Amino acid sequence: MHNFLLIERNFVKRQSILWLAVIFVLSLLPTIYAQVPGVVSVIGEVKAIDGTANQMVVRADSGVLFNVTLSDKTQYLRVAPGETSLAKATKITLADVGAGDRVLARGRGSAEQKTVPALQVVVMSKADLAKKQEQERAEWRRRGVSGIVASLNPSTQEITVSSRTMAGAPQKGNDEALSSRHDPQVQRSQAE
């Protein structure tokens, strides 16, 4: 009986070590595949465009400035804010890109050199982004509630918010405006 327990304990140890090794190797895979040699992507805001020199300066989201070199082979695509694929992208030209636009520039090069010879530039225009942000603000004003959380009821999934007018008086309103039901299914379907 003692040998059986010892064998079983060793088996469990070996199996645990094996699973830990498998998990470690699997956790490295995204890092390995994300680093395709020679491919550089820069996401940021266009700061300047020099059409005669076929270059644009892009401030990456990290704050670093990149020189994006353009050629006749560079493909320019415009996507609407919020789109997650290039299926609905429209082809544009360099003349359609302006300062303040958000871009994703992809090409072969080195991020250390801060130069990207772009094969593709995906653009979200500054005007389209401003329009989308204004729509989101209007939607928030229409549907949003601001105030202090007065109570939470996990069993009914309700959140009650206490709000006041600009003069400081308690906000008068219907219970639906000041009490909100949290429905995870609705949030998931809206996110998709």
Word description of this protein:
Mean pLDDT is 76; it is low at 172-182 and 186-192. The protein contains four helices and ten strands; from the N terminus they run αβββββββαββαβα. Strands 1-2-3-7-6 form a five-stranded mixed barrel. It is α+β, with helices and mostly antiparallel strands. The longest helix is centred in the first third of the chain and has 33 residues, at 2-34. The protein has helices at 2-34, 126-143, 175-178, 184-191, and strands spanning 39-50, 55-60, 65-69, 75-78, 90-92, 102-108, 115-124, 148-153, 158-162, 179-181. The relative contact order is 0.10. It folds into three domains: 1-35; 39-130, Beta Barrel (OB fold (Dihydrolipoamide Acetyltransferase, E2P)); 145-191, no CATH class.
What is this structure, in a nutshell?
By secondary structure, this protein is an alpha+beta fold. It has helices at residues 2-34, 126-143, 175-178, 184-191, and strands at 39-50, 55-60, 65-69, 75-78, 90-92, 102-108, 115-124, 148-153, 158-162, 179-181.
Name its key features:
flat; three-stranded antiparallel beta sheet; five-stranded mixed β-barrel; 32% strand; 3 domains; 10 strands; OB fold (Dihydrolipoamide Acetyltransferase, E2P); 192 residues
Which runs of at least 5 residues are low in confidence (pLDDT < 50)? 172-182, 186-192
CATH architecture of the largest domain: Beta Barrel
CATH class of the largest domain: Mainly Beta
Largest sheet descriptor: 5 strands, mixed, barrel
Task: Please name the fourth-level CATH homologous superfamily of the largest domain.
Answer: Copper binding periplasmic protein CusF
Overall pLDDT metric: 76
Distance between the termini: 56 Å
Structural class, by secondary structure, is alpha+beta
| Strand element count | 10
Strand content: 25-35%
CATH topology (level 3) name of the largest domain:
OB fold (Dihydrolipoamide Acetyltransferase, E2P)
- Summed up, the domain count is 3
Number of helices: 4
Rg estimate, integer Å: 27 Å
In which order are the strands of the major sheet placed?
1-2-3-7-6
Order of helices and strands: HEEEEEEEHEEHEH
What would the principal axes of the Cα set say about the shape? flat
Helix content: 25-40%
